[in-house]
Each structure stands twice: as C-alpha cells, then as structure tokens.
Amino acid sequence: MFTASLMERAISVLRSNDTGFFTKPGPNQYPHQWNWDSALIALGLSHFDLPRAQLEIRSLLSGQWQDGMLPHVVYHHTTSDYFPPASFWQIENSPHAPDNPTSGITQPPLLATVIRRMHSRLPMPDFVQEVYPALLDWHRWLHTARNADGSGLVGIIHPWESGTDDSPRWLDLLAAIQPENIPEFRRGDTRYVPAIERPHRAEYERFIHLIDVFRKLNYAPAELLAHSPFLVQDVLFNAILFRADEDLRALAASLGQPTAEIDGWLSKMRLNFDARFWNGTNGLYYDYDLRAGEPIQVNTAATFLPLFAGLATTKQLQRLVEEHLLNPREYAASGEVRHWVTTTARAEPTWESRRYWRGPVWIIMNWFLIEGLQRYAYNKLAEIIRQDTLGLIEAAGFREYYDARDGSGCGSENFSWTAALALELSDRSMEENES
Ligand code: GLC
Atom 2 of ligand 1 has which residue's CA nearest to it? Predict the structure, then answer.
C-alpha cells in the first residue's frame, strides 16, 4: 500500500533540511539542531545513508556540556530568526558550557535507543565505541543532577524538556507561576505557523520566564532543583529514560564494558515507577508535580509510554488499552475523529483539535504507541495504527502534526521526524514481525 514514492519523498525531505552536518527539524520554524528530533532523524537517515546518520549524532554530541548534559538545542553558530536565539540562554555563565552555543536544558533521551537499533540492523562497533562514553555521561548526569527526591526517577524543570511543550499536563503548574519581570521578547513561532496552532501567550511567557530563572542561577544543577518553580517527574521522560538505560546496557555489554552502574539505575526506577505514576482507580499513569507534592491528573497519550519501556504489567496494559485507547471518548478513532491517536484524551476540557500538543496527532507519539503495542504482542492494533499513520502522511504530507478530525496538516511543513518515522514505519522488516 505504501509506495516507493512515499519513501522517496521522505528521503527528499530529510535531504532538503540537511545543512551538511545537522538536519533542521523543519525548514523555517526550527532552523537549528534539536536533541530528540536528531535521534529520530539519524534513525531515518540510517535507512539510506549510514555515514550521514552517524554524522548527525556526532553533530548533536558536539553540543554536550562538560558535566554530561546533552542540551535540547544545539545552535552550531548558525544565525536565524528563531526565538530564543543562542545568546538569550547566556550559557557562558556556567562553568560546564561547551564552546558550541546551545540551550541550557535537556530533552527526552532517545539517543541510546536509536543507536542500539541502528547497531542491531547494521553492526557498527567502532561507532558505538566512539559514542558510548558520551551516552554514558549523559545518562549519568540525568540520574544524578536530576535525581530530585532520591527515587531514581528524574525530574524535568521546563515543559520544553518534556518535548510536549504546551501539553495540558503542564497548564495548572504554569498558571500557578506568576512571573514578575518577564524579559522582553518577541515570539518567532507564529511567523510561519498560524497562532491557533501554537501555544497561548500565557504559557509562552512562562516558558521564557523559566529560562530567565535558570540563567540567573548559572545553570548550576543543584540550584535548579532547589529553585525552579517547575519541577516535575514526567511519565514520558522517565519511560523513555528507562528504555534508553536498557538499550545503553545492551551497548555496554556488546563492548564488554561494565554494566553494574546501569543495572543500579534500572532497578531503582523499576522499584519506584508504579508507586509514583500508576493510578489504579483510573487505570492511567499520571505525572507527578514535585513542588506541589501531588500527581497531575490529566489524561494524555504520555500514559502509553510505559508500554514502550516494557514497564507495564499485563493487567496495566489491558486497562490502558481497553479503558482508554479503545475508548471513543478518549483516543479511539471513531465518529468525528477519524485518526489515531490524539495527544490528549478528547474528554479533557483543554482538548483543542489543532493546537500543538493540546490534541492533534503527532507521529512521534504514534510511533511510541505502535512500538509499545508490538512489544506486548498487540500486533493487530499496532498494525491498524501503523497503517492509519502512514495513510495520514501519504495524504497530507510530512507535517509536524495533524488534525485528527479530517487528517489535515498543522504546524511546520516538511517536518524531518515525520519523514524519518515514515521510513521507519514503512520498513519491511517491521512488517515481517507482524502476523
Ligand atoms: C517543538 C516540539 C519539540 C521538538 C521541537 C523541534 O518544540 O515540542 O518536541 O523537539 O519543536 O521539532
């Protein structure tokens, strides 16, 4: 059903966003290198140009901080009309900052998972050996600098660290922050994309205020944990980290490196994950607000990430699927909503069909879900969502996100990770796994 032409078009999107050493997530909207985008882009590139995929990863790692932090944006000294610009972060105030200009926060750690997958398809021991120390440093930084309550579950300090910037999960927390002196700024994100598809002004002001707080603290990790007004244990981030720790462990084993430290992280996270995140009454995983000391009871597709990590029991899996994923009031494609899977349950009052992380379909979330369902051998459902996802891309092009009602595209055009995941999802070896 999915033609060579879809794959050719996906390749040409990745080629057209290629600057030569890093790939822009979107041609106008996102002109620098983003952390988790870059991991997926490398996975996409590995389908047709392994050396270029490896270069993508090297370029990202060139922005790593000396304490191990891998930032969410690497600017590479390139200029653009993107806001915030590199200078806004003032990272030079940190003794750990690299020479390459970057942001001062991180993003979900997908990289080890991607590298393991590339290595398992086409063994590249020299490359794994080369990048392994940087991966280990980043994971170690996450497990120490962000181990806010000693539970081994890591905290995030900014909605941008979650990768799901204006998710309704963060709205109450952001509303509780009352910034006094927000630095002057002019948004760039509504220049190329209609305002109705982007975050509201109130959230944006708080995004900027948080950066201002962090730069005044010189990005000292202990200070950030002590003073960031936003401090959350995010289900999505922790599930991705758990999975990435497993993948890092496999890479370590393949290199003959010690694994005890990674085993320690894994067992601590496994021990505390359910008690912190699982809500047995509602059959959902909820994020945890460390400042307020309470769960954030908002139902979004982040609740399916423990499937990607293999952290859910069979009982939890059944509840997630039967009570939520297949529920036409929440996630199932049904009635007016024709596509899988909205990033927020439709029953949430904050749901908006075209606004950013408030409701539209994002291909990355579908990919996590498909991978998670396959992990638990829910192959039929995974296949339905996979076909629907590829159909959406085939019909509306490689967009940043899609309106689930009619499949129309939103946000950036020619979006790189949509192209990368189209290649990944069309891969024949994946189809062979399905029966
Ligand atoms: C937006 C998304 C984030 C992504 C970035 C670049 O900020 O929320 O997840 O990494 O764009 O595509």
Answer: 163
pLDDT in tens, 43-62: 999 999 999 999 999 999 99
Q: What does the DSSP 8-state code read for residue 71?
A: B
Ligand 1 pocket, residue 368 CB under 6 Å? no
Opening angle at CA 142, ends 138 and 145, nearest 5: 115
Domain chopping of the chain, boundaries? 4-427
The predicted structure's pLDDT at residue 434: 35
Structure tokens at 417: 């990770």
Write out the CATH class of domain 4-427: mainly alpha
Q: What is the pLDDT of residue 180?
A: 87
Residues 6+ apart with CB under 8 A from 23: 14, 17, 33, 37, 38, 41, 45, 56, 416
Query: Residue holding tokens 């192209």?
Result: 419
**Cα gap 171→177, rounded to integer Å:** 10
Concerning whether 400 is annotated as a catalytic residue, the answer is yes
Q: Summarize pLDDT for 120-162 with one digit per residue, the tens.
A: 999 999 999 999 999 999 999 999 999 999 999 999 999 999 9
Q: 402 CB under 6 A from ligand 1? A: no
Catalytic annotation present for 432: no
- Cβ burial of 150 (10 Å; 0-12, 13-18, 19+) is exposed
In terms of pTM, does the model score above 0.90?
Answer: yes
**Cα–Cα dist 100/180, whole Å:** 31
